[in-house]
Amino acid sequence: MNINLNNEDIDIMKTNFARIASYFYKGVTVNDALREAIMNSIQANATNICIDFQFVYEKTLDGEESNLGNLNKLIIEDNGDGLTRQNIDAFLEVATEHKKNIGGKGLGRISFLNLASTVKVESVSNEKKSVEFDFTFKTDENDIKISNCNDEQHSYTKIYLSDLNLKHPKTQVVSCVNFVKEKFNLMLFLKQQETQKKISIKFLVNGRLFDEVRSNDICCFKTINHINNNCEFLIYAFKNKEKQGVRIYYCANNIQVKPVVISETFHTEYVFAITSNFFDEKANAERTQIDFQSNDKLAQVDMLLATPNNNFEKELKDICLDVIHNCEPNIKEDNQKRLGKLEEKYGYINFNDIDVNSLEFNEKNIIDSYRNRINQKEDRLAMLLDKPDISADELVCEVIEQNKHELAKYIFHRDLVAKKGLSLTNSNENEDVLHNLFFPQKTSVVVDDKTENNKNHLYQSCVWLLDDKFMSYTYTASDITIKKINTEIGSNDFDCTSEKRPDLFILYNSPEESELLKDVVLIEFKKGNIDYKEKTSAIDQVDEYKEKLKKIVSNINNFYCYIICDFKADDVDIERVMTNRAFTKVFSNNGCMYYGYLPGSKTHVTFVSSNSIFADAVARNKTFLNILKGKNNN
Which of 63, 405, 609, 634 is deepest in the core (most CB within 10 A)? Predict the structure, then answer.
């Protein structure tokens, strides 16, 4: 069934204000009412707006007024055009043509009715008519008192909102002031540019001045005229060092409509207000959005309107960004420093595609974006595994992509340990620190032991600092007696009673019961404050340990001993001892080491400074990370 309504039918349709209020205006706040009232005042050409917050203060036990008051009444007054015949019609009717023309829905005033139990309006219009009425959901023209007034009476409008219904009656006036500044600063500025009249909003508390917002205090530091395809744009630039972020606002009829957020975190706030007749024509009735593709105008009207080309938004954005770059010449340098800090924390991430010239540089967004990409790749891999017909090539490619991230992350975290180790040199306490770094003391691990104590042994070990191959161990004993080592991996044929405790003993390649050849690693840590004789005596010490341990471990293929202590490459005493023992001096990335082979016990011995170990580990990690991230090692 089709129903046709003519204009007369539409005009007489009734609107249920109370129902609209219950649907759309729940939880009304003081700021909602202020936004509506101030908007109406500005659109009524007011230059002086006064908002009086009326508080009722509680009494203390001694009868004095407390500092805590409940907001009970709002009085909003302006010196605008007042309630003319047209304004009165708009006040009592929803979505009038008048409201549409000035950028409004005609619904906001309903917030008054939800906020206050009593709403009273009085006004003198520029038509020299005095108007008074109580505003309710049922108010109509018959309830309005209109009378003539003398020619000397200035126009004004005054709204009383009494017996406020507030969840939080102890409203903070300062928060209301900040809200008004946030919402209306641009509008006040643009309105002053249009009318060349200053606008003031005063905030009173029980009749006393609390604060004031003035349009002439809102200063733009740069104005730019831009023409695109005969369409004129006027750009106003504002700067506030007390706030953050970069935003561009397309403004229609002095109202900020379309926000373009460039950055939420830029260290200084830059706001750009762009006005144009084109925006005025393309904004919707409520001035909440701009439709650049709208065809609701007659074709001949569109022909009269200068229309920019399709690139105009990019042009406007680039102009605004150029303003900021001219004001902030150190953006690239600052972003490079911030990127450097990111690389220190997240060195496994490839930051090559980050634009250090961008105002949108945001550390959190960069990391979140990377993690999202990794998660998407992981999800894709999981989905591919559900496909029975997936090709080997496709699966391998996805696995490689995922492994690059995981491996880079693992290597980077190892690098953190190695770099921390570089700071431990030349310390008297280094022996215990280094020992625990490689492997926790008083700990032994049998890899095939399923007890709770041995679950995390792989994560406790940093023996990769010496060589990655040592991570494939089958047994480790850290500061454990040779006697206990024998009970854990030895045979019953050898009754060992030695209480000697090698700093770190590692059996890798094969478990002891295996008939295969095995490799053994023995590590000794020495304090940094001992003399060269005690440091070099460790060579004989490890040789002694080796003789006892080879009775426990059969089929030893190689026996590697490392003596780790602090010494310098130019230490002549250590060099003399090592030369006499036929050790070879080898320079590393930072310092040196001495290598020798003891033919009698068939033992490989490396005498090395802790500084060299960590420096070499850092160099290896750097090379590995650069390969994973596709960087040149130079």
Answer: 609
